[in-house]
Backbone:
C-alpha cells in the first residue's frame, strides 16, 4: 500500500464537541467541499455509524463509495473502503487529543488513497493533501462556528 499523508490542526473546542461534528455524517455536505452526499447505511452497537455511503467530488478524485468505520473510544475513528467505482483503497483516521486543559483539541487526520486508474504517486499524494487540508479547515470552521441547531451538538455542551 502507498504511503499515507497526515496533517494536524488545533480547534478551539473540547474533543467531545469535535467528535460530535465528525460523527454527524448526514451534515457533511453542508460543511465539506468534497462530500456531496452522505448516507449512514449501518450503525454499531453504540449507535455510531459503522458503514457510510459518500458521494465524493475532490477534483482529481470523483467517486461514489462506501466506507466501514471503527470507533476507538471517544477520541479516534478510522475507516476503510468497502466498495468504490474508482478507488482501490481509502483508509484514514481522525485522532483527537485535548489541548489547553481540554478547552481545545488537536485533530490529526491521516489518509491513504489508492485509485484503480494509473496515477503518479506525487499527484496522488497531492490529492490526499488537498482532501486532508480542506477537511481539517472545514472541520475547524464548522466546530468553531458553534452549534447548527442540532440536538446532538447541543447535548455535548
Residues:
Amino acid at each position: 500500500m502507498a504511503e499515507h499523508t497526515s496533517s494536524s490542526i488545533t480547534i478551539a473546542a473540547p474533543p467531545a464537541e469535535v467528535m460530535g461534528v465528525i460523527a454527524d455524517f448526514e451534515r457533511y455536505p453542508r460543511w465539506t467541499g468534497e462530500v456531496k452526499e452522505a448516507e449512514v447505511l449501518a450503525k454499531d452497537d453504540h449507535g455510531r455509524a459503522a458503514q457510510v455511503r459518500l458521494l465524493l467530488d475532490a477534483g482529481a478524485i470523483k467517486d461514489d463509495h462506501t466506507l466501514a468505520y471503527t470507533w476507538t473510544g471517544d477520541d479516534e475513528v478510522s475507516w476503510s473502503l468497502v466498495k468504490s467505482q474508482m478507488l482501490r483503497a481509502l483508509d484514514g483516521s481522525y485522532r483527537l487529543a485535548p489541548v489547553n486543559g481540554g478547552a481545545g483539541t488537536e485533530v490529526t487526520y491521516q489518509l491513504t488513497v489508492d485509485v484503480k486508474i494509473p496515477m503518479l504517486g506525487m499527484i496522488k499524494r497531492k490529492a490526499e493533501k488537498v482532501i486532508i487540508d480542506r477537511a481539517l479547515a472545514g472541520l475547524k470552521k464548522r466546530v468553531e462556528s458553534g452549534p447548527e441547531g442540532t440536538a446532538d451538538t447541543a447535548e455535548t455542551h
